[in-house]
Amino acid sequence: MTKLPLVALSLGLMFVSGCVAPNGSAAPYNGARQQTAAQQLAATEAALNALEPAPAPAVTAASTVPTLQGLGYAVVSVQPGRNTAQKTLLAIRAARMDATRALAEQIHGLSVDSRTTMAEAVVQSDTLRATVTGVIRGARTVRIEPKSPDVYEVLLEVDRDMIAQMLRVARRTRT
After folding, report:
1. pTM (2 decimals)?
2. What's the rounded Cα separation, in Å, for the pair 107 and 65?
3. How many domains does the chain divide into?
4. How many angstroms from the chain centroid is the CA of residue 62?
5. Domain that holds residue 82
């Protein structure tokens, strides 16, 4: 069996999870109400059911699932702190959070809200807001290193085994 069903499942989950405005944000332009968590779950289950039946366990082996990586950066000098050591630790923490956000974007998708106001065929304002909401489990730190004297880089990874486990749990909960 090919990797196509797994890719289709991943893309389907990404599209379904990225189509919902986060709680507390403005309603979509068409006036539709925001989806509740139950509606989100139902939409995800419908997308999973629309795909081929779940493949045999051998197909969901870790070798068929990609490893996801998130890269994050932070500047040391702009961090609050009394000395360079404190600022460095805070920069590493900020870079880790940035890397976690990058992973969440890959796994859960990115919600984009854009508004343009025009008057007399002239743009008055143009705003763009992007949000991501999700849970990241099993991420491990691959490396933390300075990229310059004032910038730190953190690389996080969710390995194939964790992603395969999450897919198995998702399939079990839909039956």
Report:
1. 0.57
2. 13
3. 2
4. 20
5. 68-158
